[in-house]
């Protein structure tokens, strides 16, 4: 086990200088960001600065346990070439010695400012939460400026964290996830004229009076001139057949934000942003007018399901997704830059009737764009096969239900995820399949499912069951992202 930062830095250099390390395990992902060792979780401080995308994240570099939380960083201009992971925030001050917890970024006057929660626990496990700020000025030195908010307001517990910053009409606002003394999840709003001194405005009023016991990782962002999305991760929702099937959820409501009254008016019902097994704590940032989201591929309190921990690393990040607002919902699509990952086209055909079609592939590093005609089919099933194991995705036209089933995998998490999916003419699935992560977009991003999987074999086959017309099937092999020293 690594015991010092010197050992960590040397281990990072050694890992990326030996390209065989990437190929040493069949679960090592090729185009998803993950750490060479340790536990990675929430994306933090996502932004575009100095002509690069900055991706910060929670990282315990000392082991695969949820403790000793640092902020790590990779940067990229193209989502193909990344800087080697580096530790930029360490839990070593009086106000963050229990962990540098999640938060956001804001660029002001050429300075990248990072906002995070400093976590401190006492000898009897009592918690104190401090909202803190860090300055970065393009010289790769991150300077902790200390505490901005030293205590939660009256009526709330110390579950008071994850600051995100936005600006409106020349005023800066901070949104924080909290828990009331009655153990209800809520969000609080603070304001500032100079982004350095903050005052409490109030609790964000919504119609969600009983939606879990804690709201984590809040995001407030504009989706058009009149409406904003409030995206957050509530904990403690009751599981139902077609929603809230994970232990914790991430999702959004859309409404009209009145900051004078601290009220989200006329908002929609809470809608999960991803219906898979392994998606949590997303963060959204704006670049060139586009809202871009990255989420954590993982799930709190389910660590035993992620078997890569046996080899020293755990969890990763989703690919960047562009969020588009239409029909009073958020659609997701892959960032356009990701097309540059395509190495070669393996399959490309249209308008073919097939009967139990299958194709064997040499790699589990692919992008697959599939369009299946449903006019003459009541039920459809797609299998991702790994020798004697498989993951199935099935759709019932009559019931308008999609089911993702990984019960036929021997290792890792199992179970099914069901969700409603209305389709007119064809079932569309845009899949990104990596060595242990899968992301699937349905119906042009109306729904998505993200999942981790741990096959025993490198064998890979895609099978389309029954007789069906394939309107389109395109498969590309994808290149491995590249890491270099900064």
UniProtKB/TrEMBL annotation:
Keyword Membrane assigned: no
Q: Which residues form the Glycosyl hydrolase family 32 N-terminal domain?
A: 32-334
Write down the chemical reaction(s) this protein catalyses: Hydrolysis of terminal non-reducing beta-D-fructofuranoside residues in beta-D-fructofuranosides
Q: Which Pfam families does UniProt cross-reference here?
A: Glyco_hydro_32C, Glyco_hydro_32N
Q: Which SUPFAM superfamilies match?
A: Arabinanase/levansucrase/invertase, Concanavalin A-like lectins/glucanases
| Keyword field contains Cytoplasm | yes
The UniProt record lists the EC number as 3.2.1.26
User: Molecular function terms in GO for this entry?
Assistant: hydrolase activity
Which keywords annotate this record?
A: Carbohydrate metabolism, Cytoplasm, Glycosidase, Hydrolase
- Similarity annotation: Belongs to the glycosyl hydrolase 32 family.
Family matches, as NCBIfam families: scrB_fam
Name the chain's protein: Sucrose-6-phosphate hydrolase
Q: Which organism is it from?
A: Clostridium gelidum
Q: Which gene encodes it?
A: sacA_1
């Amino acid at each position: 086990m690594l015991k010092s930062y010197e050992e960590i830095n040397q281990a990072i250099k050694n890992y990326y200088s030996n390209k065989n390390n990437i190929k040493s395990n069949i679960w090592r992902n090729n185009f998803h960001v993950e750490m060479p060792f340790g536990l990675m979780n929430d994306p933090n401080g996502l932004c575009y600065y100095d002509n690069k995308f900055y991706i910060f994240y929670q990282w315990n570099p000392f082991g695969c346990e949820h403790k000793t939380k640092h902020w790590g960083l990779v940067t990229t201009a193209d989502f193909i070439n990344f800087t080697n992971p580096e530790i930029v925030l360490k839990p070593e001050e009086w106000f963050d010695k229990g962990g540098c917890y999640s938060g956001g970024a804001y660029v002001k006057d050429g300075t990248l400012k990072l906002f995070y929660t400093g976590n401190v626990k006492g000898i009897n496990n009592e918690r104190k939460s401090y909202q803190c700020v860090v300055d970065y000025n393009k010289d790769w030195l991150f300077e902790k400026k200390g505490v901005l908010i030293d205590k939660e307001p009256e009526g709330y517990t110390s579950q008071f964290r994850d600051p995100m910053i936005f600006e409106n009409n020349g005023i800066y606002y901070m949104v924080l996830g909290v828990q009331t003394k009655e153990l209800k999840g809520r969000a609080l709003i603070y304001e500032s004229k100079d982004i350095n001194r903050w005052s409490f405005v109030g609790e964000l009023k919504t119609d969600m009076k009983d939606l879990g016991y804690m709201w984590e990782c809040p995001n407030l962002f504009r989706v058009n001139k009149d409406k904003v999305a409030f995206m957050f991760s509530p904990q403690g929702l009751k599981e139902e057949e077609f929603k809230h099937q994970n232990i914790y959820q991430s999702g959004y409501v859309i409404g009209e934000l009145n900051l004078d009254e601290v009220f989200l008016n006329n908002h929609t019902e809470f809608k999960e942003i991803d219906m898979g097994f392994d998606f949590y704590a997303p963060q959204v940032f704006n670049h060139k007018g586009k809202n871009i989201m990255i989420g954590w591929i993982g799930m709190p309190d389910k660590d035993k399901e992620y078997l890569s921990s046996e080899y020293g690393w755990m969890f990763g990040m989703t690919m960047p997704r562009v969020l588009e607002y239409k029909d009073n919902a958020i659609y997701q699509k892959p960032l356009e830059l990701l097309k540059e990952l395509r190495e070669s086209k393996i399959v490309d055909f249209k308008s073919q009737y097939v009967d139990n079609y299958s194709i064997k592939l040499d790699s589990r590093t692919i992008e697959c764009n599939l369009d299946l005609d449903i006019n003459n089919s009541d039920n459809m099933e797609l299998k991702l096969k790994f020798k004697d194991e498989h993951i199935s995705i099935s759709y019932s036209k009559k019931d308008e239900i999609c089911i993702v089933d990984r019960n036929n995998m021997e290792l890792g998490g199992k179970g099914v995820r069901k969700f409603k999916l209305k389709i007119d003419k064809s079932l569309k699935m845009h899949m990104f399949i990596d060595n242990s992560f899968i992301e699937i977009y349905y119906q042009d991003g109306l729904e998505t499912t993200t999942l981790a999987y741990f096959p025993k074999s490198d064998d890979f086959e895609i099978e389309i069951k029954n007789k069906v017309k394939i309107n389109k099937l395109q498969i590309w092999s994808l290149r491995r992202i590249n890491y270099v020293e900064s």
